[in-house]
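One-letter codes give the sequence; the fold follows as tokens. An example follows:
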Amino acid sequence: MNILAIVPARGGSKGIPGKNMVNLNGKPLMQYTFDAAKESKYIDRILLSTDDEKFAEFGRSQSIEVEMRPEELATDTAVMKDVINYHLDRLAEKGYTPDIFILLQPTSPLRTAQHIDEALKLLIEDETADAIVSVMDMPHQYLPMKIMKMDDSGALKFYQEDGEKYTTRQALPHLYARNGAAIYAVYTDVYRKTGSLYGTRCLPYVMEEEDSVDIDKPFDLFLADCILKSRQK
């Protein structure tokens, strides 16, 4: 079975300029994803999708295959599905179509090869599923029935009208949130038919909160750095 990893890393980043190459505990951010993908037992091919020549140069220095994406696919409003379709089309023109592709965003540096392989193993061994996405348990204080809002007068109200009735944690539903997501994997033929990373039956791959940091703002970088340093000790 051929499994392709697509690592999307565009150059423009507002929250953290040059985010994908920012230093995290002594290594460029995207190197964590390269290392995890290279250590995977299932991934056969790794493709860095970028519009930034500095990112491309670093990818090549790490023995990663690089495909430059068009300018229109590197804007703030560019849709990830369009990026994926572009690369799948280009590869198909060269005679290569993976059985499964896995999207590994470089903003999830605490996702490891073990996480990747466990997720792919679940997907491959479950004959009824055609996609898998990484998630984490949603902290109870962020559940819809616990969230509050201010009305036009500035008074605090429950966002969900019946929220006040949930007075104990035991009464709350068990919900999950995508953790970035750190992992999206789907059978290519199903993705081509549905246009969805979730396929027709998507499995959850549950990750721990401490492995689920998604780098979006400086505090996320600080948190990931603290976690990595604590593990070194």
In short: The longest helix spans residues 218-232. The chain is about 30% helix and 20% strand. The mean pLDDT is 94. The radius of gyration is 19 Å.
